[in-house]
Design a protein that fits this description.
Elements (H helix, E strand, L loop, with lengths): L9 H4 L9 H26 E7 L1 H7 L15 E6 L4 H12 L7 E7 L5 E6 L2 H4 L3 H4 L6 E7 L1 E2 L5 E2 L8 E10 L4 E11 L8 H8 L7 E8 L5 E4 L16 E6 L14 H30 L2 E7 L1 H7 L15 E6 L4 H12 L7 E7 L5 E6 L2 H4 L17 E7 L1 E2 L5 E2 L8 E10 L4 E11 L8 H8 L7 E8 L5 E4 L16 E6 L14 H17 L6 H8 L1
Parallel strand pairs: 1-5, 8-12, 13-17, 20-24
Antiparallel strand pairs: 1-2, 3-4, 3-5, 6-7, 8-9, 10-11, 10-12, 13-14, 15-16, 15-17, 18-19, 20-21, 22-23, 22-24
């Protein structure tokens, strides 16, 4: 029905209908507005940022022969950097230096190229002129990502040194070693060779890559392509690389010569036959997995995984398995729940599993923040708790997700019996606390508190001392754990400033320790929380770079 209204009557007839809307409609409208705002922010971010995926020798060695056999690397499993498009590439190299601990002067980058035969290889090194451009100018075509290979040369003691000068005559080759007895292939390194040179001239170097004697007889094969069929051809060692049409980014597979052996003792005596087998095996495996996978997807569509983290999980993990953020959700209790189940019924499932009556449970949604930390963001509302589990989304979720992560807040009496969670107002925020001991060089989770946003840390020092088991008047220092990627940020908190002025909110983490004001801090290696967290972060970076190093402690001390 169409109704006409006089212009002069408009103000009397039309009015703001907010007060007449049902609560669930208000919630729906609010969610739609939040989603629109999130999409708007994402579009702005897409215009301002780009993803740079940096592959290194470590990635090739980790993946080839385990996760993949053809080509060099799966870029979805290498380190990715979220970088502003306007950042000069020279500045990006500084970021890489901090993450990988490779000084700028020891870095050389290669662009990747997709070839006509569908392989994907390093194509050429970045020029000096390109390195002064912004990262946005270096992207491949119109893609939102830039893929690079970071070439780093290491001494025997694993210290980097400047990459050798590369001329137009030099080509970069990658090498894989095949063992027909073990039926395994692995990445062993790369070499810069002269295009006019011959494979015969570098056989000693190739043997050195794999630890063979210098005069070991080996056979070389070029890995050319693997789709839609495998092409891997024998290389004549007496012909030049140019005559063999071998160039930058090409892959040479080699193995011990079987010239004086009975090849029938091996199922796949040479690289090409092994590649054929792996290719056929993958095709067969994919076919076998398609049908069950489809059924699995159809079944999974009916269910949602809900991962519930509790104080017990935080206490178990922090300082042992993790140091930053609060919990590894892959190691907390998971519930497989039908999507249409009302959340109120899910709470009964939790009550059976954990022995916590429904009336004593309060749930918090998690969110991934812009600084990549992952924290509880807000409690579920009464309106949300009457919805089905499928209607619930994490704060940062952009679309339907088969998984939901929750924090279960349960308050216990001294006799460990649960009681109803305290009523909260918009003025109250939930903070999590970690205690650091500089003598033992250990950090642990000690609990959480609701505090008034307008209050000051000074007002809760007694409670914090109680959480730690200290005397009520023990002097302590507080630090906020802000983020840990791409570098650690942990800042001192002024106890006289309000939580609001310190920009602390729901889900934030406060680390605290005994004050060292009247002590000689030189007696400790890491006297304060920020230094300890930086130390732990450095250890993790080293472990990622050199997975074969067993004693990180010894390595770290040796580098000081």
């Amino acid at each position: 029905m169409l109704i006409y209204i006089r212009e002069s009557y408009k103000e009397n007839i039309l009015c703001n209908a907010d007060e007449d809307l049902a609560e669930h409609l208000k919630m729906t409208l609010k969610k739609e507005q939040e989603e629109k705002e999130q999409k708007r922010k994402e579009k702005v971010e897409d215009r301002l940022y780009t993803i740079i995926k940096v592959a290194r020798d470590e990635d090739l060695a980790e993946q080839i022969g385990k996760e993949m056999y053809f080509d060099l690397v799966d870029h979805d499993k290498v380190h990715a950097f979220h970088i502003q498009k306007q950042m000069p590439f020279t500045q990006f190299k500084d970021v890489v230096a901090k993450v990988f601990r490779i000084p700028v002067q020891f870095q050389r980058y290669w662009l990747w190229a997709k070839r006509q035969n569908h392989t994907y290889r390093p194509d050429r090194a970045l020029t000096v002129q390109e390195e002064v451009q912004s990262v946005g100018q270096l992207r491949e075509g119109n893609t939102a990502e830039l893929k690079l290979f970071l070439e780093v040369e290491l001494c025997l003691d694993l210290r980097p040194f400047p990459p050798p000068e590369k001329t137009k005559e030099d080509i970069l080759l990658f090498f894989k070693f095949y063992d027909p007895l073990k039926e395994k292939i692995r990445y062993v390194g790369r070499l810069l060779v002269k295009e006019s040179g011959k494979p015969l001239e570098i056989l000693t170097k190739i043997n050195e890559l794999v630890g063979f004697s210098p005069d070991e007889k080996i056979e070389l094969f070029e890995e050319i392509k693997f789709e839609p069929n495998v092409i891997c051809e024998h290389i004549d060692s007496k012909r030049s690389f140019r005559d063999c049409e071998i160039g930058d980014g090409d892959i040479i597979c080699f193995q011990k010569s079987l010239q004086n052996q009975c090849s029938e003792q091996y199922r796949f005596p040479e690289v090409p036959s092994f590649f054929e087998y792996m290719h056929n095996f993958q095709i067969k495996l994919n076919k076998e997995q398609e049908e069950p996978e489809q059924k699995k997807k159809e079944k999974a569509h009916l269910y949602k995984i809900i991962k519930v983290a509790r104080d017990e999980d935080l206490g178990e993990q922090i300082g042992k398995e993790i140091y930053f953020d609060l919990v590894d959700h892959d190691k907390v209790h998971s519930f497989r729940i039908r999507k249409q189940m009302p959340f109120t019924l899910f709470k009964e499932e939790v009550a059976k599993e954990f022995g916590i009556p429904v009336q004593f449970q309060r749930y918090w949604l998690w969110t991934k923040r812009q600084n990549h930390s992952y924290r509880p963001n807000r409690p579920l509302t009464a309106q949300e708790e009457i919805q089905s589990v499928d209607q619930l989304r994490e704060v940062s979720d952009k679309q339907d997700c088969a998984e939901l992560k929750l924090f279960l807040e349960v308050d216990l009496c001294l006799d460990l019996r649960p009681f109803a969670p305290p009523g909260t107002t918009k003025e109250e925020i939930l903070l999590f606390f970690k205690l650091y001991d500089p003598l033992k060089e250990k950090i642990r989770y000690v609990g959480r508190l609701f505090v008034k946003e307008s209050g000051t840390p000074l007002e809760i020092l007694t409670k914090l001392n109680e959480l730690a088991g200290f005397s009520p008047d023990e002097e302590i220092e507080l630090f906020e754990e802000i983020k840990f990627e791409p570098n650690v940020m942990c800042e001192h908190i002024d106890s006289n400033l309000s939580f609001r002025d310190s920009q602390l909110g729901d889900g934030d983490i406060i680390c605290f320790q005994k004050s060292l004001r009247n002590q000689d801090s030189d007696q400790y290696r890491f006297p304060e929380v920020p230094l300890f967290l930086e130390y732990v972060y450095d250890l993790q970076v080293i472990k990622d770079r050199f997975p074969r190093i067993q004693s990180l402690e010894t390595y770290f001390q040796g580098r000081k």
